[in-house]
Amino acid sequence: MSSSNSYDAESRSAARLGAVQALYQMETAETPVDGVIEEFIQHRFGKEVDGVNLPEGDAEFFEDLLGGIVNYQLQVDQATNGVLADGWRLDRLDATVRAILRSGAFELLFRKDVPPKVVISEYVRLSESFFEGDEVGFVNGVLDRLARNNRGDEMAS
């Protein structure tokens, strides 16, 4: 699949996975964003880590995701909190779910070049690699509400 700004869907998927992992690492280990970006690009994408061959990630897309999420975290979190059920807040969620939602929400809000249905399906699929329970449906529901609130015209087609 390609568009006017040609890209490899598999390397974008790897970049999304990397962004979720990096956000989790940044939160739990309090690692600064610049160090995490360099670590992933230099030592994880396309490398063998703990006996697992990691796919080559789209480094430019990864850097844009991570930098954007950090720079626009307040807007991303406010928009996400706005679609959560009453009494729920992003900071009450599991750290991995929070990382998935922040990354997906950033794309829905700020990456208008990526169709919202692609964003939702990518992060739902990604959440399936971490969870087997209700979290997958939860991610789907939250990102769907965000997409309808912010890009409803594209969701209708």
Highlighted features:
mainly alpha; 157 residues; single chain; 69% helix; disordered N terminus; N-utilizing Substance Protein B Homolog, Chain A; 7 helices; two-stranded antiparallel sheet
What is the number of helices? 7
Q: How many strands, which pairing sense, and closed or not: the largest β-sheet?
A: 2 strands, antiparallel
Strand order of the largest sheet: 1-2
Q: Give the CATH architecture.
A: Orthogonal Bundle
Polypeptide structure, described:
The protein is mostly helical. It has one domain: NusB-like (N-utilizing Substance Protein B Homolog, Chain A, Orthogonal Bundle), CATH 1.10.940. It contains 7 helices and 2 strands; from the N terminus they run ααββααααα. The chain is globular. It starts with 8 loop residues before the first helix and ends with a helix.
Put the structure in a nutshell.
The chain is mainly alpha-helical. It is built from 7 helices and 2 strands, in the order H-H-E-E-H-H-H-H-H.
SSE layout:
Elements: H1 9-29, H2 33-43, E1 48-49, E2 52-53, H3 59-71, H4 73-83, H5 95-110, H6 116-128, H7 134-156
Antiparallel strand pairs: 1-2
Helix pairs in contact: 1-2, 1-3, 1-5, 3-5, 4-5, 5-6, 5-7, 6-7
